[in-house]
């Protein structure tokens, strides 16, 4: 296929669009064993006239044992989505709509947004764990690592004997690849990578079913980043938990994720199996993101980035939110918002995209049609 000019694409885009919007089912391999099912979740920051919409009707599924990567530039709603889904959203964030269904291993289902605080606490501590952004800096500098891990275990396992807690602390350290002797160290005696591993060990203390990691490797060098992501995959393989891994570096996700969802201006604009999304991005924004970070391995590639900056949530563009930065924008993009759907032009299992270029294969530029 030849590359079209902007004018050609504009002419084609003014053709009547397909009447029906395809309903997007969860990927077939996930449908039977979902651990988390986020439906139409909306969040705003602030109240009344000053409120800004930070998430707009986001639906996302997480399979049991799956590692789902959530990527996008800062301020696109990744952390808001994770914190809202677990009801950890700090004020002035307000959940304005949606449901979050959590299915435990015993098959029991809970709708997290309608649980009482006590019910939620029981689910959250035992089944959901979060490693917050910059967590490694939240270790208390004046206490040894052992005390901090033992305290965390004691809060959640008050009936355990001291010996049981100490055995568990050693086991957790070994699980994340740190010799148990280092339990006696103070945080400043450990490298950044080790401190981050300690935080992961603490998050795994209660054997959660879902581990949410918010930019867990951002402050680390690439070698350490790689070691941490490899370790998370190994732990998942061994313990079977599911992971939501949040990062602005989509190239890191190819090392760890089974599936990737890309966010922009509070919405998911593309999702699909990690390898396929990485090799053949279908959305212009995803393509730009991939060209913003060097891959952790493989040949050198030219980094071109994305022109401009993410939109102000208080003053979002009309139509496709990405249109002011999109090199392929057409007339229709400025006025009509695309929906996330299986691409009519390039239908692929488990993949969805929100972009008008996919209405017709002839509209797709070569770089998005490979
Ligand atoms: Fe670009 Fe958005 Fe138009 Fe797609 S729908 S071509 S991403 S402006």
Automatic annotation (TrEMBL):
User: Which Pfam families does the protein's record reference?
Assistant: ABC_tran (PF00005), oligo_HPY (PF08352)
Ranges where the ABC transporter domain occurs: 38-290
Signal sequence annotation: none
Keyword line: ATP-binding, Cell inner membrane, Cell membrane, Membrane, Nucleotide-binding, Translocase, Transport
Q: Name one GO cellular component term.
A: plasma membrane
Share an example GO biological-process annotation for this protein.
Answer: peptide transport
Q: In Gene Ontology terms, what is one molecular function of this protein? A: ATP hydrolysis activity
Its principal location? membrane
Q: Which InterPro entries match?
A: AAA+_ATPase (IPR003593), ABC_Ni/Peptide_Import (IPR050388), ABC_transporter-like_ATP-bd (IPR003439), ABC_transporter-like_CS (IPR017871), Oligopep_ABC_C (IPR013563), P-loop_NTPase (IPR027417)
Could you tell me which SMART domains the record lists for this protein?
Answer: AAA
Which segments show compositional bias classed as Basic and acidic residues?
A: 1-21
**Compartments in which it is found:** Cell membrane
Q: Where in this protein does the record put region Disordered?
A: 1-24
Task: Report membrane topology.
Answer: Peripheral membrane protein
Query: For this UniProt entry, which segments traverse the membrane?
Result: none
Q: Which domain of life is it from?
A: Bacteria
Q: List the NCBIfam families hit by this protein, alphabetically.
A: oligo_HPY
Sequence similarity? Belongs to the ABC transporter superfamily.
What PANTHER family has UniProt attached to this entry? ATPASE AAA-TYPE CORE DOMAIN-CONTAINING PROTEIN (PTHR43297:SF14), OLIGOPEPTIDE TRANSPORT ATP-BINDING PROTEIN APPD (PTHR43297)
Q: What is this protein called?
A: ABC transporter ATP-binding protein
């Amino acid at each position: 296929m030849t590359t079209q000019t902007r004018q050609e694409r504009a002419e084609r885009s003014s053709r009547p669009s397909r009447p029906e919007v395809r309903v997007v089912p969860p990927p077939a391999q996930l449908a039977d064993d979902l651990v988390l099912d986020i439906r139409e979740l909306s969040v705003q920051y602030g109240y009344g006239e000053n409120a800004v919409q930070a998430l707009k009707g986001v639906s996302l599924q997480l399979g049991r044992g799956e590692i789902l990567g959530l990527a996008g530039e800062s301020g696109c709603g990744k952390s808001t989505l994770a914190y809202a889904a677990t009801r950890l959203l700090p004020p002035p964030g307000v959940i304005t709509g949606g449901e979050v269904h959590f299915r435990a291993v015993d098959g029991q289902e809970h709708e997290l947004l309608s649980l009482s605080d006590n019910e939620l606490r029981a689910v959250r501590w035992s089944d959901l764990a979060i490693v917050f952004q910059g967590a490694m800096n939240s270790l208390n500098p004046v206490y040894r690592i052992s005390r901090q891990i033992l305290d965390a275990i004691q809060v959640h396992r008050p009936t355990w004997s001291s010996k049981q807690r100490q055995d568990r602390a050693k086991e957790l350290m070994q699980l994340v690849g740190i010799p148990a002797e280092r339990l006696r160290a103070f945080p400043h005696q450990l490298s950044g990578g080790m401190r981050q591993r300690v935080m992961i060990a603490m998050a795994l203390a209660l054997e959660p079913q879902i581990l949410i990691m918010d930019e867990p490797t951002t402050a680390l060098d690439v070698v350490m980043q790689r070691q941490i992501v490899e370790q998370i995959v190994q732990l998942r393989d061994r313990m079977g938990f599911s992971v939501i891994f949040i990062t602005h570096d989509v190239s890191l996700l190819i090392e760890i994720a089974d599936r990737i969802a890309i966010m922009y201006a509070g919405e998911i604009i593309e999702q699909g199996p990690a390898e396929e999304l990485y090799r053949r991005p279908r959305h212009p924004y995803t393509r730009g993101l991939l060209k913003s970070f060097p891959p952790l391995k493989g040949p050198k590639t030219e980094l071109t980035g994305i022109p401009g900056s993410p939109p102000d949530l208080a003053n979002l563009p009309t139509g496709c939110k990405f249109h002011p930065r999109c090199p392929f924008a057409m007339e229709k993009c400025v006025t009509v918002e695309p929906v996330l759907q299986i691409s009519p032009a390039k239908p692929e299992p488990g993949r969805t995209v929100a972009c008008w270029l996919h209405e017709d294969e002839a509209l797709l530029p070569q770089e998005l049609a490979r």
